[in-house]
Amino acid sequence: MERSDFLVDLDTKDDFFRKFEGQRIQALSLPVKSRNLTTLLAEIEACYHRGWDLMDAGEWTKADFDQVYELSQKIYAEVHSLREEFLEKN
pLDDT tens, 35-78? Predict the structure, then answer.
């Protein structure tokens, strides 16, 4: 599988790209109450960056996929926990 299979030609000057990519960057840079969530987000971001190189080299494995999947489940659980905590306080 090639990286180009997943890429589309993005015009980075396009308003759509600037708006939504900007929102993603802001969301990742917002201060987060949970240090655990911040750590998990950094770990999954690193997996995605490393994943492109592995995919280009044809070395992406089930273990790599499982690592990303496990991190995504941990992130979901942490967000759910923070949401429950917030709802209990309000």
Answer: 788 888 888 888 878 877 887 888 888 888 888 889 889 988 88
pTM: 0.57
How many C-beta atoms surround the C-beta of residue 51 within 10 A? 17
CA-based torsion, 42, 46, 49, 51: positive or negative: negative
DSSP 46-84: HHHHHHHHHHHTT---HHHHHHHHHHHHHHHHHHHHHHH
Domain range annotation of the chain: 32-90
